[in-house]
Design brief:
This protein has about 240 residues and is an alpha+beta fold. It starts with about 25 loop residues before the first helix and ends with a helix. Helix 2 runs parallel beside helix 5. Strands 3, 4, 6, 9, 10 and 12 form a 6-stranded antiparallel β-sheet that branches. The chain has a 4-stranded antiparallel β-sheet with strand order 5-11-7-8, with no helix packed on it. The protein folds into 2 domains: about 100 residues, no CATH class; about 140 residues, Sandwich (Jelly Rolls), CATH 2.60.120. It is elongated, with a radius of gyration of 26 Å. The protein has 5 helices and 12 strands. About 20% of the residues are buried.
């Protein structure tokens, strides 16, 4: 009470949080302030390129080890007894929804012949690599490009260990996220199968913490007007390939 009058006090309502609908992206230009950086070459302030944030998050992702990826996640591809030359069998490993994997090793095995002189060649396809198998080719396999230019295999039981970060291989871990696949391809050559012939693929690495949400950037890019996209163009062109 002030000067004999009762003060009117308004208490804000405590409203529960409301989740936006799936796929909704805020109008960044009117609701949020974009981060700017100073370009020392042009002498101008510019919007922070999205790729700078993405690259930092990818580095942060790789520091987590939420689980181990090992032979428990492996797959086998079996060519049945009696199969003809040219028979091809595949088996795929798919990264589960919401996960990101960093693989440092792939172990691929091809079976010994049954005594009939069969050779089962093996290769691995990476769905993330949407490119022809050969440099001059045009056809792209749905399972992605093959890791080796030429499939591997002899009449003996062979084991091929690919240390991905090594020189001569990728030189870095292989980052795969939800929906990406690595596919074992086993192909029968030289003679019909005299027994079941089984090839195997075992991945090794770790399940990290997913921090990069490229899908959100993609939704924003697709639904904004062309003029609004200009401020994100440089960053998005890089980010979409991560």
């Amino acid at each position: 009470m002030t000067n004999g009058k009762v003060e009117e006090r308004v208490t804000p309502q405590q409203l529960p949080g409301v989740l936006p609908p799936t796929g909704w992206v805020p109008p960044l230009d009117t609701k949020m302030t974009l981060i700017g950086v100073y370009n020392t070459q042009s002498g101008r302030w510019v919007g922070l390129p999205i790729q700078a944030l993405v690259e930092a998050l990818v580095q942060a992702e790789s520091k987590y080890a939420l689980d181990r990826i090992d032979d428990r996640d492996g797959v086998q591809a079996t060519i049945p007894n009696g199969s003809a030359v040219g028979t091809e069998v595949t088996a795929s490993i798919t990264v589960p929804s919401g996960e990101v994997w960093f693989l440092n090793r792939l172990v691929v095995t091809s079976p010994a012949d049954s005594g009939a002189g069969e050779i089962v060649t093996v290769n691995v396809r990476i769905s993330k690599w949407q490119a022809p198998d050969s440099r001059t080719g045009t056809a792209i396999n749905d399972a992605g490009r093959s890791y080796w230019a030429n499939a591997q295999g002899t009449t003996a039981a062979d084991t091929y260990t690919i240390d991905l970060p090594a020189q001569g291989e990728l030189g870095e871990e292989l980052r795969l996220f939800a929906g990406d696949t690595i596919t074992l391809v086993a192909t029968l050559t030289t003679a019909a199968a005299g027994a079941d012939l089984t090839a195997a693929l075992k991945p090794y690495g770790r399940k990290a913490k997913r921090l990069v949400g490229i899908e959100v950037l993609h939704a924003y890019w697709q639904h904004r007007a062309p003029g609004d996209r200009l401020q994100f163009r440089a960053g998005w062109q890089t980010a979409k390939g991560v």
